[in-house]
Amino acid sequence: MRGAEFSELKAFAAVVERASFARAADQLGLTPSALSQTIRQLETRLGVRLLNRTTRSVAPTEAGVRLYERIAPLFEEMHAAVAEAVSSNRRTAGTLRINTPGLAARTLIAPRLGRFHRMHPEVVLDIVIDDSLSDIVAGRFDAGIRFGARLEQDMIAVRLTPDLRLSAVAAPDYLSRCGEPTTPAELQHHACINWRFPGSGRLYRWQMQSADEQLELAVSGPLIANHPDLMMAAALQGLGILYTFDDGDVEAAVAAGQLRRVLPGWSVTQPGLHLYYANRRHPRPALRAFIDCLLDRDVIPG
Question: Which pLDDT score is estimated for 227?
Fold first, then answer.
């Protein structure tokens, strides 16, 4: 295969995986117009249309799907081979691609970026924040971070956090105006802040649990969002009751009097965050170093 043909196929795979010329061009270091020209050259050379393009979306044709299904495993094997070659000299170097939900990016990765870079300056972290549970193998990620209940099968997983509790919270201003619910049933008469799953688009039904009862509730209110920062801002501004992970941000807001916990006897615990990667790969030194950093195993006790 000539170099130009390889570049064309690599460009085609990038567009399919990211469903966007702009995102694929950014990954490949090209302009969208140059990438579009590369795809046209590939389609002309093969004599078949591979992508259907509109002003808002791009998707593979039937021929494009068949071609991608054949070449994607080849690119994956090449990626693994290069990674193994780099790791053979034990250098902690190269680009490490991580797919992570926003919660893990904010609470686990962001606070440790500086330390990781100081300890491993030859590693480039390529972090993609993704709450839609993308396939890390198809996306050619080195690893992903997910909640334990949503781990993909046939993966090696490393627990990063204890199990996480969900709690209902609201601003004192909202509670003074609207009252405080004493039972989950009363949430039907309150403004609630809803989470929409990015992948499926469905709304999260609040799963609540007391000492002897489990409930699942559909609630309504003035805001539906798929980003936790926006939902937290809405709760702090008194828009309604938020049901969210009881993490450091929530604890800080409660301690500062900005939020109050409601229905304290009703919450649920979910499996904690795990980092996972394909079991057919030996983890590269960069990935092992990243795991050590997230677990604070790279800190020398003082």
Answer: 87
